[in-house]
Write a structure and sequence with these properties.
The complex is a heterodimer of chains A (429) and B (371). Chain A contains 15 helices and 14 strands. Chain A is of the alpha/beta class and 429 residues long. Chain A folds into 2 domains: 223 residues, Thiamin diphosphate (ThDP)-binding fold, Pyr/PP domains (Rossmann fold), CATH 3.40.50; 165 residues, Pyruvate-ferredoxin oxidoreductase, PFOR, domain III (Pyruvate-ferredoxin Oxidoreductase, domain 3, 3-Layer(aba) Sandwich), CATH 3.40.920.10. In chain A, the strands form 2 sheets. Chain A has a 7-stranded mixed sheet, sandwiched between helices. Chain A is elongated, with a radius of gyration of 33 Å. Chain B has 371 residues and is α/β, with parallel strands linked by helices. In chain B, helix 2 links the parallel strand 2 and strand 3. In chain B, helix 3 packs parallel to helix 4. The longest helix of chain B is centred in the middle third of the chain and has 18 residues. The chains are: A alpha/beta (429), B alpha/beta (371). Chains A and B meet through strand 2, helix 3, helix 5, helix 10 and strand 8 of A and strand 1, helix 2, strand 3, helix 3 and helix 4 of B. Strand 10 of chain A pairs antiparallel with strand 8 of chain B, so a sheet runs across the interface. The structure holds iron/sulfur cluster.
Amino acid sequence: MNSYLNKTRPSVYCPGCTHEKITKGLDKALVKLNLPADKTVIVTDIGCSGLFDTFFNVHALHGIHGRALTYASGLKLANPELNVIVTMGDGGLGIGGAHVLASCRKNLDLTLIILNNFNFGMTGGQYSATTPTDAIVGSEFLNHAEIPLDICAIAQSAGATYIDRCSGHDERLPGKIASAIEHKGFSIIETLGMCTGRYTKKNPLTPKALDQMITDLPAKNGIIEKNKRPEYGDRYRALAKERKTFPEAVTIEKQTDLKNYQQQEVVILGSAGMRIVTAGDIVCYAGLCAGMNVSMKNDYNITVLRGQSVSEILISPEKIGYPGIESPSVVLALSDEGVQRRKKIFATLKPDTFVLKERSVTIPETNADVVEIDFRKFKIKKQDWALASLGVMAKKEKAINKAMLTYALKSRFNEKVYLIAMETIEKMI
Amino acid sequence: MALSFMEGNEALARGAIAAGCDFFAGYPITPATTIFNNMLNMLPPKGGICIQGEDEIASMGYCIGASMAGKKALTATSGPGISLYSEQLSFAIGSEIPLVIADVQRLGPSTGSATRGADSDIQFLRWGSTSGVPVIVLAPKDALDCYVLAVHAFNYAEEFRCPVFIASNKEIGMTRESFDLDSVTLPPIVERKMFSGDSYLPFEAEPNAAPPFLPIGGETLVRQTSSTHGPDGYITIDPDVIAQNQARLREKIHSARKRITLFEKDIKENSDTLIISYGVTARAVEDAGKTLESKGKPVSTLTLKTLWPVPEELLIETAKPFKRIVVIEMNLGQYVNEIKRVLCDKKIMFYGQMNGVLITPAKIMEVIENE
Ligand code: SF4
């Protein structure tokens, strides 16, 4: 192909706008590489640079300001064969900075062409993240209080594997864009240009001045040796390929029959580190082993290693409707923190509610049937109190029985852990 | 019989897999994170892709890109994430990009409570995008629903080429429960309608349907754009073309409204009260209904699973014989406004609660019996 330009949609830029040069430069680069149009996509965002997708006969995705790299990443991950080229102005660079950083870190095989013309052309020449401090732009004095950023320096520290910078008027531009596209990994090419419609009206800027700026800035010519590493897509696919086993749902066969079982509500009140959630799980498994319906809600601190841990379980022969606790049949009070979290329930407990209270735990006044146990006496460590309590429940046939508990532990744990768990349980039975 | 045991979030992920979802991008947020965790375990062995975005905006962008390459994409978040999704949502809605978005709602506003449930976002999901184009929002009441509605959500997303929300809730997403996974009958899978013909215009469509699809990266060149566009996918300022497209975006969902109305109802003869609810609250309503029936005071219940588009015909038809309509919501009154609008000749009572705890069956009975 000798040009990818869409003849029916000629460029519409202001006379002298560098974007025009970059459009032609990109076209020449595509021609040079002879990229298949149907395997090439130009992704753009908002502003004058966001018109790029309309000029070319390739696939196109024009999206929201600053987000072009996010669509580009999705496209490339979904279809690794695609050549994905992103154009972005200094506006998109500022608003989408997080995506530029992430793309540098990831090193997905995308090419980002930044069209830096030092201001927002389309909206009236306001200052951007790259506007020089002393420039006169459409933002009154605001840019005089800030400094411009050097995206190439940032990209390098963020891990970009390929960085180039040149004037948009540089004759080598097509070759430079082509090299950036050819690089396997994330490549950034920053072009400096003139916005004749806005910026250069008050700020003297010529192709020569742009060359001088390039000379004054730290040189960037492509591959960044110290950041060299495998392309993200390849790396991702290699790692993902090792994940071979699809996690099937936990499904528990009915193994024991219960006669006249009434809905049970079990509340376990403990603290982080006491394996409360595991104990709750086991109670559920016990119900499932008896063919019952179960539901479980857990309540723990977002700082998982501290604070209360509460598990609320329903076991019912019927399909469970309301999944909250209304009238507990069993309460395991295993830590003060846990009890504090649900202190209001104690006053509401019925006389036939079974409350197991560890000796060290204080509970509010209650009409329930309270049994105190000193687990330390049984030489049971704190982290096993919840498990041991299940042994007590099974022995007293509160919500679960020994057969249920045994099946539950067998289903929940491997042989080794099962045997250790049973040792603890046996102490209580 | 063997029951499966999982939380709503896992069920939703399994439903997505069953629907053929092969792409997930998300950003961790309680109480939606376990959807992400599950997809991360489930997608790679199936050859799918699961990615963590640098933020929510990026996650949506990844999904949009992947969907435009032909993937079935899912993302999951909670209210604060939906806020960040908004700009990309508008893009996906306006430019007809199929996506499924799970919103495991938590108590807001803002950061609110990460681990407290509420149906906070019911109006936000409908209106949290620019231009007011209709969206589809489904509401599960339990883990089983999460599984089944995920398939419906993908089917609708593919057929109507639009984002479809699953309005879950912390109290469903993070509650583990049993259900008979093997006996569930899932709806047949609907695939995106592909274009077959000669000259493809990416947004040329029947007046009340989504345009046929071709992926970016296929043999035919495809244009996608967030700008106001004509059938060719280029910017247009032609008022007629704009008006036609706006009307179509609306009509494609409105005209299918009856077909995408999902619900459960339990109509009791001799009852003069209909309780309308959705989400986890529906379970308390159904329990309250059972108790009231045993007390000789039967009430009828309607559980909505499609919230948007508002199932107007269903509401009007179901409510017809009832003297009293009661709406119960886990917020201070969001969807009740739709019901008041549709059932404008009925007396509508409302009870809502926004305190981080479930509405109990006892509370619902009190509302019903004391009014
Ligand atoms: S406003 Fe500036 S950037 Fe936009 S077309 Fe004109 S010169 Fe180019």
